[in-house]
Amino acid sequence: MIWNLNGPEKRSMSAVDTAWLRMDRRTNLMMIVGILIFESPLDIDEFKQLLETRFLKYRRFKQCPVGSGTSYYWEDDPDFCLDNHISRLQLSDHADHGDLQAFVSELASTKLDDRRPLWHFHLVENFEGGTALIARIHHCYADGIALIQVLLGMTDNAPAAGGKRRKQRHEEADNDLWNKLYRPFAGAVTGAIKLYWDVIEGTIDLVKSPSKLMKYTNLGLGITADAARVLSMPNDPQTSLKGELSDRKKCVWAEPLDLNEVKQIGKALDCTINDVLLASVAGSLRNYLLERGDDLDGKDIRAFIPVNMRPATKMDRLGNYFGLVALSLPIGIANPFERLYELKRRMEELKNSHEAIVALGLLGVAGALPNAVQQFSFDLLTKKGSAVMTNVPGPREALSMAGSKLKDILFWVPSSGEIGLGVSILSYNGQIRFGIIADSHLIPDPENIVNRLQCEFDKLLYGTLLNSWEAPLSPMVIEQEIHDWVAVQQLESVLEAARMPQEA
């Protein structure tokens, strides 16, 4: 709906976007933060031109969220000026990744200026001979997958050998990126997802017509049962990941994994890439918590995982089009292979459930309710988890922007309510990057989590190589040999020996 009120154009905000807008807290700001690191300096004039033609083609980026109570809308900023959303700076003369991490952490802890559209770009010039472009965009504008696509839509193919840039129409590049980034999560619920958009976009007033909500949620697909299960889940166990939050965040990232190696391990172990990556994260969290003295015997912790639910008709739009599933990470399991297959089993169960649709409906309902009720509801929900984890597939080949090759790209997912840990996984140009954003009071040393990721993946890698096999391993074979095939202690000894300096 659009209102013409003899002033700037106003467009109603969807209930889901409203929920994300009102989720802002001093301890958890609803910003998606990303970094694009370029090999050579980024020309500021060319960058501004890209923003004008490719970023601001989405009118929403010239609009502010305005409203009160349960009525929110997008309003054109009458004084919009691009320069208000761009900052140029330099860190120290010999700034390294530690300095950049500290600066990103400061930005992730700082609110956007709510007098203007809620986004900002920071160009860190002369960083390792190039430019680090940091983007901060409020979650109410769009979900992470859409925002990364918008940023990548400002890029072109990387320069070819000899410095010549490959020519390609921008529209074709955009379409290719959309096709790569968006995948349906479960084809069996496509009809339910389509029906839900009448609710989410405000066609149906959920508060005034609860009977219609039941009509749309009770679709004979087990949605009602899944809703009851989600709402009745017990709170997550008390670990070092749970506790009082502060208003400061720490952003860190790990050295990348080789995507081809992850694919090969997944193929050999009859698992998906996602299974392997999540198992590595679970192992890293396990060892971190053990070091901090947590008792993990028989314990799981839940991670809320965003699931893309964007219908085909919404592929070229901003907004939030995703649900959430709660994955129980088996951190109480010591053996990395046993942990991997248990996690795979749980992921299969989630793929056959309707939790994502339930969460999507809950977000729509929350956005239509008074703010105090929404905050109370999300406090209840976030007590059931300890982390937010997201995995976004990025471009397979290197890209460039304004003639500068994009060397690396990272992003951090915001947490909500009482959750103090966010884990982001992004693939780009044959590598997989892990980023962690953590509450600095609750988790003062998140680098000790990301630094363990390589070791956890190596356990799966070396364990697979040490086994003699001629065909892909089946879960049944792994289950039979899991305790006598490769012990965790043996793997750790192998890894430790491999990292010892060799005598001349």
Description:
The chain has helices at about 15-20, 45-55, 95-110, 145-150, 170-180, 190-200, 210-215, 225-230, 260-270, 275-290, 335-350, 355-370, 370-380, 445-450, 455-465, 475-480, 490-500; strands spanning about 1-5, 10, 30-40, 65-70, 70-75, 85-90, 120-125, 130-140, 155, 250-255, 255-260, 300-310, 320-330, 385-395, 400, 405-410, 420-430, 430-440. The termini are far apart. The strands form 3 sheets. It has a 7-stranded mixed beta sheet, sandwiched between helices. Helix 9 packs across helix 10 (about 275-290) and helix 10 (about 275-290) packs across helix 11. About 35% of the residues lie in helices and about 20% in strands. It has about 500 residues and is of the alpha+beta class.
Largest sheet: 7 strands, mixed
Stretches with pLDDT under 50, minimum 5 residues: 1-6, 158-197, 199-208, 217-223, 483-488, 499-504
Mean pLDDT: 77
Distance between the termini: 74 Å
Oligomeric state, counting identical vs distinct chains: single chain
> Structural class given helices, strands, pairing?
alpha+beta
How many beta-strand segments? 18
For the largest sheet, list the strands in their spatial order: 6-7-8-3-16-15-9
Strand portion = 15-25%
User: How many helices in DSSP terms?
Assistant: 17
Taking all Cα atoms into account, the compactness measure Rg is: 23 Å
Describe the global form: globular
Please estimate the helix content: 25-40%
Could you give a quick summary of the protein structure above?
By secondary structure, the chain is of the alpha+beta class. The chain contains 17 helices and 18 strands. A seven-stranded mixed beta sheet has the order 6-7-8-3-16-15-9, sandwiched between helices. Strands 10, 11, 12, 13, 14, 17 and 18 form a seven-stranded mixed beta sheet that branches. The chain has a four-stranded antiparallel beta sheet with strand order 1-2-5-4, with no helix packed on it.
